[in-house]
Design goal:
single chain; alpha/beta; eight-stranded parallel beta sheet; six-stranded antiparallel beta sheet; 23 strands; 26% helix; globular
């Protein structure tokens, strides 16, 4: 999103290795030259060639738990150093990888190396400083390095302080050597993790509250406390997410809604990456996008990614609401999260010629909305493109598209993902306003306000990567 770029994340639990899988011993790229499997380890050039074929940016997970600063530096040299002998001998140009993660979920005790090298965030960050120095010294281009801030959406880890304290300790140690801090946006404690639909639908609201009220302020305060210039940004990245239903093979409406809501979170909060796990997980039968090993039999999650990728405009603009219908979820810590029926994000192009909204109806009741844009008397054309699930339990979603002759009383079907696209004759210079009424047992007047004036974009950076992690088995070719 933003510059129509793609990203390929290389690495996950296999990178450091995991103690609950005997075959996940840790990835050492120099041991795998010429290997094409078996899963999960093969020649790193296979994944790099896939990224090149897709014209994709790469975010590389570095082996922190069973690797070393020397190995990390050598890897960056291979990827980015114009004088690297190994790559030159392979007759390859530099790969110019810009983004690196130091370990995958290393805050989790199941990851190999956690107990020795990441028993606390202080132990982790202290060693990470050595990795960062070795990596930057071996790159011919500037690189950005991310550190793990927590295992899941709750920003906790085994033995780690958690949340604001973890973030503060990492920045206090790393200072400008950290460019982004990572979490994985899975449903997690204190919300239910037993695949209950409403808590899953509440997770991104819970995440938005935690990020806005705790994580971002902690980053800002730590940067100020360490006299880090505002010219150096420390972003947040969600480099893995899905629901627990995906693990049970149920890749339908609820999963698609969670995907879309996670995208809304990323775009509205300026999160650097929102990366669905997983496009191809060793075997197509276990993938997020395909059913029964058939790339032509796609899931609603695939349809969601396709809809968003083909529809949103380039700039995110500020948006707010009032009076939406809500439902309350009490978590296991006794805290109530109020979940609005609609999640939404608004986008415009640089010429401000129109507005495209992504609106997710997370509830199993239809919602009705009327949209108006101040400063423009009429629109040239408008349309609604929608994926309709109706119920959380449905494994399929039906896609429909229709032109809109009016922006009044637009129906957002139950459990649906909508793109509303509005094109105006004149450049927008004022405020776009959407006025919503919710059709349930009662009718409630609500409002969604989108600011489209010049300078109203919310981003601190100009690209958010919305995507799906690609992992192939035996260098399988996927079209």
């Amino acid at each position: 999103f933003g510059q129509k770029r793609k990203m390929n994340r290389i690495g996950h639990g296999i990178t450091d290795g995991r103690t609950d899988y005997s075959y996940m011993t840790g990835y050492h790229y120099r041991d795998e030259w010429g290997q094409n499997g078996p899963y999960p380890y093969d020649d790193i050039r296979n994944a790099l060639n896939e990224a090149h074929t897709m014209d994709a940016e790469v975010i590389m997970v570095v082996n922190f738990g069973t690797g070393s600063p020397e190995e990390a530096g050598a890897l960056v040299s291979y990827l980015n150093n114009v004088h690297d002998a190994t790559r030159i001998n392979q007759n390859l140009p530099p790969f110019n990888v810009n983004y690196f993660e130091l370990g995958n979920e290393i805050s989790w005790s199941t990851e190999r190396g956690h107990d020795q090298y990441a028993s606390t965030e202080i132990v982790y960050a202290t060693r990470a400083k050595l990795f960062a120095a070795a990596m930057r010294a071996n790159s011919s281009i500037p690189i950005q390095i991310g550190l793990v801030g927590g295992t899941n959406s709750n920003w906790y880890g085994n033995g780690w302080s958690g949340q604001a304290t973890t973030v503060t300790n990492i920045i206090n140690i790393m200072k400008t050597d950290v460019d982004f801090i990572i979490y994985h946006g899975y449903p997690s404690w204190p919300l239910s993790t037993d695949a209950s639909p409403l808590p899953i639908m509440a997770q991104n609201t819970w995440n938005r509250n935690l990020l806005s009220r705790t994580i971002f302020p902690a980053i800002e305060a730590a940067m100020k406390g360490n006299n880090i210039s505002s010219s150096h940004t420390i972003k947040v990245a969600n480099t893995e997410y899905f629901t627990s239903l995906y693990q049970a093979g149920q890749r339908g409406t609820l999963e698609a809604l969670y995907t879309a809501d996670t995208m809304v979170t990323a775009l509205n909060l300026d999160i650097f990456v929102a990366n669905n796990f997983c496009f191809d997980h060793g075997d197509l039968a276990d993938s997020l996008f395909f059913i029964n090993n058939d790339p032509n039999n796609t899931t609603p999650i695939y349809a969601t990614h396709k809809l968003v990728a083909e529809s949103l405009r380039d700039l995110v603009v500020s948006i707010n609401s009032s009076g939406l219908s809500t439902s309350s979820v009490k978590d296991q810590a006794g805290v109530t999260t109020v979940v609005e029926s609609l999640s939404y994000v608004a986008t415009i192009d640089a010429n401000h010629a129109g507005v495209t909204l992504l609106i997710v109806n997370k509830f199993e009741q239809d919602q009705t909305a009327s949209v108006s844009v101040l400063g423009s008397s009429s629109f040239l054309r408008a349309s609604q493109n929608v994926l309709v699930g109706k119920q959380w339990s449905n494994t399929n979603m039906i896609q429909t598209s229709q032109p809109l002759s009016t922006l009044s009383n637009i129906v957002f079907p139950a459990a649906s993902i909508s793109i509303i696209d509005i094109v105006y004759q004149n450049q927008l210079t004022t405020t776009a306003r959407a006025t919503t009424t919710t059709t349930t047992t009662t009718t409630t007047s609500t409002g969604i306000t989108t600011t489209t004036s010049s300078g109203s974009t919310t981003g601190k950076h100009d690209v958010t990567y919305l995507g799906c992690y690609l992992e192939t088995d035996n260098n399988r070719s996927i079209n």
